[in-house]
Amino acid sequence: MALINDNFSKLAAGYLFPEIGRRVSAFTADNPSADVIRLGIGDVTEPLPPACIAALHKAVDEMAVRETFRGYGPEQGYEFLRDAIVEHAYRSRGVDVSADEVFVSDGSKCDSGNILDIFGADNKVAVMDPVYPVYVDTNVMAGRTGGADSSGRYSGLVYVPVTAENDFVPQPSEEPVDLIYLCYPNNPTGTVATRETLQTWIDYARSNDAIIFYDAAYEAYITDPNIPHSIYEIEGARDVAIEFRSFSKNAGFTGIRCAFTVIPRELTGKTASGEDQPIHPLWNRRHCTKFNGVSYPIQRAAEAVFSTEGQQQVSELIAFYLTNAKLIREGLQAAGITVYGGVNAPYVWLQTPGGTGSWDFFDQLLAKGHLVGTPGGGFGAAGEGYFRLSAFNSRENIEQAVERFQKVVA
Ligand code: MLT
Q1: Which of 8, 67, 335, 344 is 20–30 Å from 223 (CA)?
Q2: Which of 16, 17, 108, 112 to mutate to test ligand 1, by most ligand atoms within 8 A of the CB atom?
Q3: Domain match, 149 and 75 both
C-alpha cells in the first residue's frame, strides 16, 4: 500500500499564483477579446542583459568542442562564480563571506523550501504575516504544522503581523521560536528592514539559539544607502543567519534559473542530545545528494552579471522597474489610494478601497479593468484588505494599467 504524505491534505488552498492563473484563464475563456495586463506574479518581462547573452553563447560554443566540453560540475557551483559572488555581492560591501560558504542553486524558492530537510520536525517556526507563501506551504508539507483555521492560519506556526499598524516593522513574538523567516526588501509589502530591525532579530536569534532564514532576493532594488543589502552587514549575523540570494529579479533569470545560498561556517544548530552541530556540512550533504549543480552556461551567464558591462546593464534594468513602481505608486496615490513599498522594491502594496476584501478586489479589477494583481489575503490573514501590484512589465503596460486602475476605483 503506497501511503501519501498526508500533510499535503492540510494545505488550505492551491499555491497562490496557480490559483490566480486559474481565475485569469477562466476570465479570458469567457472574454477572449479582453487585453489582460498582468501585474500579479513578480515575473520579469525585459530581456536578459547583453553581457549574460554573450556569456551564454560563448559557453554553449565551449560545450560543442571536446576540449572545452563539461559534464557534471561541482554541485556547489563553479569556483569562477562562487568567487565572483563573494567579491561583488559581499566583499565590495565590506562583508565577510568566503567562497566555500556559497552554494549555487537553481532558485531561492527551491532553496528556501529545501533548507527544511536539514532541520528537525519539532522546531517552532515564525513567519511574517503577510508572507511569501512558499515559507508556509513548505512547512505544512514537511509536517511542521497542524491544519488551517478559517483565516488560513496553520496551527503550530507563529505568525508575526507586519501591517500599517506597526509601520511594517515586525517584532519578535513572546512565544519562543527556533526558525525565523525574514524577507527584505519584502515580498509582498515592498517595505525594507533598517539595520536596527535586523539587529533586533539577530539579537533575538542569538539569545534563543534560533536561526534566521534571510531571503534577500530583491536586494538589488534597494535605493536607500542606509538600508543593508545583506543580513551579514549586521553584527552577529554570521552566527545565526542563512541568506538566500537570486539572479532572478536583478538580472532577469526567472526563466533560466540561478541563485545562491550562503551558510556561514560558524552557524550551528543542536543535535537531539544538545550538542552544537555546524549547519554547513549538513547543507553540503543535502545539496550534493539531491542536486547536481546549475548548468555550466547558466553559471557563466551569472558570472557575467558581475562584469563591468553586466553591472551597468543590471542597474539599467532595476532603474526601469523602479520607474514602473514609481508610476504605479504615484498613479494610485492620485486616485486616493494608500500605498506602501515600491521605492526599494518592485512591489507596491496598497490598501483596498473602502476595505474591500482582497479577492473581491481582485475579481473587480479583472472584470472591470482587465487588470491582474495579487490579493493580499493570498499572502496571509494579515494581508486581508491589501493588494499587491508588481512593477515587472513593459512601460506601456504599466501606464495602461495605472489608467485602468484609476477608472475602476473612480
Ligand atoms: C511573487 O510574485 O511573489 C514571486 O515573484 C514569485 C517567486 O519569485 O517565486
Answers
A1: 335
A2: 17
A3: yes
Assigned domain for 47 exists: no
> Under DSSP, is residue 103 helix (H, G, I), strand (E, B) or coil?
strand
Beta bridge partners of 211: 179
Same domain, 166 and 123: yes
Assess contact for 259 and 107: CB atoms under 8 A: yes
Residue located nearest, by CA, to atom 1 of ligand 1: 42
Give the model confidence (pLDDT) of 355-402 as tens digits.
999 999 999 999 999 999 999 999 999 999 999 999 999 999 999 999
Going from the Cα of 64 to the center of ligand 1, the distance in angstroms, rounded, reads 34
Distance 208 CA to ligand 1 centre (A): 30
Q: Is 159 helix (H, G, I), strand (E, B) or coil?
A: strand
> What's the rounded Cα separation, in Å, for the pair 55 and 304?
6
pLDDT for the residue 13: 75
For the stretch 11-39, pLDDT in tens is 987 778 888 999 999 999 999 999 999 99
Structural domain boundaries enclosing 142: 53-306
**Distance between alpha carbon 136 and the CA centroid of its chain, in Å?**
13
Mutate to test the pocket of ligand 1, among 24, 43, 393 (most ligand atoms within 8 A of CB): 43
CA of 187 to the centre of ligand 1 (A): 8
**Distance, CA of 332 to CA of 282 (rounded, Å):** 47
The last residue of one of the domains, among 278, 306, 334, is 306
Asked if 355 and 220 sit in the same domain, the reply is no
CB within 6 Å of ligand 1 — which residues?
41-42, 109, 132, 187
For residue 254, the CA-to-ligand 1 centroid distance in Å is: 9
Atom in ligand 1 nearest the alpha carbon of residue 188: 3
